[in-house]
Amino acid sequence: xxxxxxxxxxxxxxxxxxxxxxxxxxxxxxxxxxxxxxxxxxxxxxxxxxxxxxxxxxxxxxxxxxxxxxxxxxxxxxxxxxxxxxxxxxxxxxxxxxxxxxxxxxxxxxxxxxxxxxxxxxxxxxxxxxxxxxxxxxxxxxxxxxxxxxxxxxxxxxxxxxxxxxxxxxxxxxxxxxxxxxxxxxxxxxxxxxxxxxxxxxxxxxxxxxxxxxxxxxxxxxxxxxxxxxxxxxxxxxxxxxxxxxxxxxxxxxxxxxxxxxxxxxxxxxxxxxxxxxxxxxxxxxxxxxxxxxx
Length: 295
Known about the structure:
The chain has helices at residues 17-28, 40-53, 69-78, 107-123, 160-185, 214-227, 231-234, 236-243, 275-289, and strands at 8-12, 32-37, 58-63, 83-88, 127-136, 190-194, 250-255, 260-265. An 8-stranded mixed β-sheet has the order 3-2-1-4-5-6-7-8, with helices on both faces. By secondary structure, the protein is of the alpha/beta class.
């Protein structure tokens, strides 16, 4: 990775997994990293570990619940000025039953996409002139998503896997559409997306997600031993996206069907690259969150 000056980095959901190891890497370089997390106790514990391993960096924490737009607004109001890197990393995956955010959104779309859409828009005035925004998606965006704008919140006949695929497709659509709008505005800020392949993280055991299903939560750790890479390895595409990849790109592991390996350009479905679909999702996201972008 190239040498970088000290930057102000904000990472959502950085108390564990991919976000944690991304934060650790940037702190080792001497960056000032903010762990923006829902659980402050876990965030403080993670920050202490990072400080011990990366004494040259600066690490602090902030409370941010992406499933609550009021929390998103509160954090954005108190966030530091001149943010150099924003990493939209936090997420939930496949709860056992349909669950809603504080604002009545389906949990996965509301947290993974709408929460980050609102956060990025509210923080945009605080971004440095050449800031980088990286949004974390997933290979799951290939798993038969269906963005039905007449039933975006998946009311009736809930399918958690489809909900997750929809949210990860939305992540890519958002990242690429944001870059299109940045380009039209003549801004030097860049927006891209990345995915971690199949990485062993708490997404598979979280009580808010897959872990809420007793059977799948028990089987996931066993299966991951055979098919996954470590969370540390899974953080490499994020770091690559921030440091190497340009705006409007998608990065991920480059081996074994993008499930693992060194980071590089990743493949997207045609749907993920559809500018008309992205523009429609953007308009709907603005209406649902009440957040507009100063572009």
